[in-house]
């Protein structure tokens, strides 16, 4: 891992077009060499985008692997590049919502696009924040990750084992909560709502935390700029009348918003995650048949 971190550090000095093209090439190799993740990706695409033909889904899957590998290499830029370089590479539209953050509390809802770390950096260049953090098994990688996520502003990193109380304290102290809402963490704290028409175990925490604190929910999505020119981070208007009285309806509303963003940049969504691993009672698993890999 130390060798990998050293390579990432060396690569971060490269111009972004060179680094991005190298990431694309590595992604094609990984698509060929990791059949398990290829299968997960193709299964997700088959379920979520059934209107595409098999060859179209396979091409989209290849493009996703390229985008994902590229984002890993470019993470070195996020971790070690100067603030000046980052500000030149990150286009923020219309801007970090500092007035809303100052008025607080605010939940920054960031779906799992491959560039999501760029959104976090865009916020940290202007404001502190609070975020869930999963300690890494490798100590060197854990230190690098923590450094990369805390080097510009004081950041509150909360492990999942600590529960929601530290998050509520941070929100009440006007620290925005940078929340990643769209992974399958099991049925315990989730509700089943459609994601592209497929029942998906989805965290209801955004709605529940917003209801408990009165927080505004402001979505933010980070994507690649064309021609390897950097990244675009777009902050959307705060959701009106959210969460309302029904957390399930609020969670479905969140998934519908994410679906719209996915269709705008489908190759950049995190398809390699088992989004439908947890099934409603009585339903079979969707990742067991390896025929699509």
Describe what this molecule looks like in 3D:
Helices cover 47% and strands 15% of the residues. Strand 3, helix 8 and strand 4 form a beta-alpha-beta unit. The protein has a seven-stranded mixed beta sheet with strand order 1-9-8-2-5-3-4, with helices on both faces. Strands 6-7 form a two-stranded antiparallel sheet. It has one domain. It is of the alpha/beta class and 293 residues long.
- List low-pLDDT spans: none
Q: Tally the helices.
A: 11
- Cα radius of gyration in angstroms: 19 Å
N-to-C order of helices and strands: HHHHHEHEHEHEHEEEHEEH
Structural class: alpha/beta
Biggest β-sheet, characterized?
7 strands, mixed
Strand order of the largest sheet: 1-9-8-2-5-3-4
What count of structural domains? 1
The whole-number mean of residue pLDDT values reads 94
Strand content: 15-25%
Number of strands: 9
Q: Could you say which overall geometry the principal axes of the C-alpha atoms support?
A: globular
Proportion of residues in helical segments = 40-55%
> What's the N-to-C terminus distance?
29 Å
Structural descriptors:
two-stranded antiparallel sheet, 293 residues, 9 strands, alpha/beta, globular
How do you describe this structure in short?
The protein has 293 residues and is of the alpha/beta class. Helices cover 47% and strands 15% of the residues.
